Amino acid sequence: MTAVKSAVAYFDSWLAFRQRYSRVPGVQAAVLLDDELLLSTAHGQADIGAGTRLTTRHLFRIASHSKTFTATAVLQLAELGKLRLDDTAGQWLSYLDGTPLAAATIRELLGHGAGVVRDGHDGDFWQLYHAFPDDDTLRKIATDRADVLPANERFKYSNIGYSLLGQIIAAASGMPYNRYVSEQIVARLGLEDTGPEYDPSRADEYATGYSALAYSDRRVPIDHVDTAAMAAATGFYSTAEDVVRYVSAHFFGDTRLLSDASKRLMQRAEWTVKGADGEYGLGLARVEIGDRLVLGHGGGYPGHITKTLFDPHDRLAVSVLTNAIDGPAETLAAGLVRLVNLAVEQGGEGRAGDGRESAGLDRFTGRFATLWGVVDVVRLGHKLFLLRPTSDDPTQGAAPLTVEGDHTLRIAGGIGYGSFGETLEYVFGDHGVESVRGGSATTSYPIERITAAAETLERVSVGTPLR
Asked: Core-most of 195, 207, 273, 278, by most CB within 10 Å?
């Protein structure tokens, strides 16, 4: 627990840095361990034009996270005997009679193995050229050349397939999809800031979504819209805090939504995903980060990119939500897992008297900058590390640091191009660290000092350095 908490504390600082460094309008995140919410944080803005600061209560469209809710609902109905995973879509949706998709099984749809077209043959609703498909339009899509590949040939992601599962859930449960998941999943868990579709009555609570910087230096705000018949694939909204509480119901031993038997079925690998690291189960993606197998899902909605990962055995969950169509949510969520791995494997959980030892180490920690960039000295568990916050993987090239004296650390690891074996020499003042010399024997300063200098200095010259 000590190591994990130290990793989470640094994660919040890293998120703040990455939000600015990546030029993302806003980042909202949460981390949960067992039943304890270790972090709920927000950095940046919910609305750039209005200057609205992002908070932990702003709502995000979590898009394909919806598939995890849909898969959970299917497994619930299977446990109740209201449907079977080997039922065909045609058994529940009569309009599919005589079409290729009639033979697709519920399990094939859940695992993206049915060969179904991804978004139909006109997916421009994703660009808001027109509205998302309603039920009638979904029927037309499902009966118009929707069988792109033979079933069970390979993993083939399909929003249309999951939209059909929403209709199947409605038929099997006897109530509309949105009502079923609201009552049997959201309400059961007491998730007050989660729902299956855009709620116009809460319009002021949503973080504004923005376009990408890939094609313009200016981000354009994007309207929130109803996803209609595709809610089961991409309609949900939530907060990071609610999302980690939701996925905690998928930890083993938690029976609020599903039995452990159903969770094992949902979480086992159905497919290896070609061209990407990882696998896919029934509504959940699987990936190994270091030696840790985590599950979860991402979400891409016009203006919002989101990612959630969880370890059902160690009962750890992280969710990162961003309000830009190019937001690095996946990179940031994976960063937490990597930091926890490093903290647990190398930082350790601490010893008796750890509080005093940690306080002694904490005096060395901070974010320091030179003309060349930024480094962090971080305590993870009861060890210090030199990390580079600009890296997508904050643990890449992590260098352990050993205490050599009251003012000196030694670099005891890291990459070969670094300063292995050399020292970091600290100058302390009344308010903490004033400067650090080390790493090519250059002098770094607390980042606030370099930031202030960069905002006022017209040119860096010999005798007029950035400091």
From this structure: 207
Q: What angle do CA 278, 77, 151 make, to 5 degrees?
A: 45
φ, ψ dihedrals at 137, nearest 5°: -65, -40
Kindly state the helix (H) or strand (E) to which residue 403 belongs, with its residue range: strand 399-405
- To the nearest 10°, report the CA torsion of 211, 215, 217, 220: -20
Judged by DSSP in three states, 124 sits in helix
Angle, helix 159-173 to helix 66-79, in steps of 10 degrees: 40
Does pTM surpass 0.90?
Answer: yes
Q: What is the pLDDT of residues 65-122, one digit of tens each?
A: 999 999 999 999 999 999 999 999 999 999 999 999 999 999 999 999 999 999 999 9
- Cβ pair 42, 25 in contact under 8 A: no
* Nearest-angstrom CA–CA distance, 445 and 121: 56
Residue 209 near residue 48, CB atoms below 8 Å: no
Asked if 394 contacts 339 with a C-beta cutoff of 8 angstroms, the reply is: yes
Asked whether the CA dihedral 116, 64, 307, 327 is positive or negative, the reply is positive
Structure-token pair, residue 157:
């992601």
Kindly provide the b/e burial profile for residues 400-423, where b requires at least 16 CB atoms within 10 angstroms of the residue's own CB: bbeeeeeeebbbbbbeeebbeeeb
Q: Considering only CA atoms, which of 260, 236, 242 is closest in space to residue 250?
A: 260
Q: Are 74 and 106 in contact (CB under 8 A)?
A: yes
Helices 66-79/260-267 angle, 10° precision = 130
What is the distance between the alpha carbons of residues 137 and 176, in angstroms, rounded to a whole number? 17
Burial of 127 (0-12, 13-18, 19+ CB in 10 A): exposed
Q: Where are the alpha helices (DSSP H) in 174-211?
A: 177-181, 187-189
What span, in angstroms and rounded, lies between the C-alpha atoms of 422 and 447?
A: 22
Residue 94 and residue 87: Cα distance in Å, rounded? 13
* Tokens 């007029």 -> residue: 464
Cα(217)–Cα(326) distance, rounded to whole angstroms? Answer: 13
Amino acid at 22: S
116: β partners: 147
Give residue for tokens 């969520």: 333
- Would you say domain 25-327 falls under CATH 3.40.1160.10? no
Other CB atoms within 10 A of residue 385 CB: 26
Q: Which helix (H) or strand (E) holds 267?
A: helix 260-267
pLDDT tens profile 180-216: 999 999 999 999 999 999 999 999 999 999 999 999 9
Query: How many angstroms separate the CA atoms of 277 and 405, rounded?
Result: 44
Among 88, 39, 79, 10, which Cα is nearest to 316's?
A: 39
Task: Check: CB of residue 75 under 8 Å from CB of residue 281.
Answer: no
How many CA atoms within 13 Å lie on the side-chain side of 148?
18
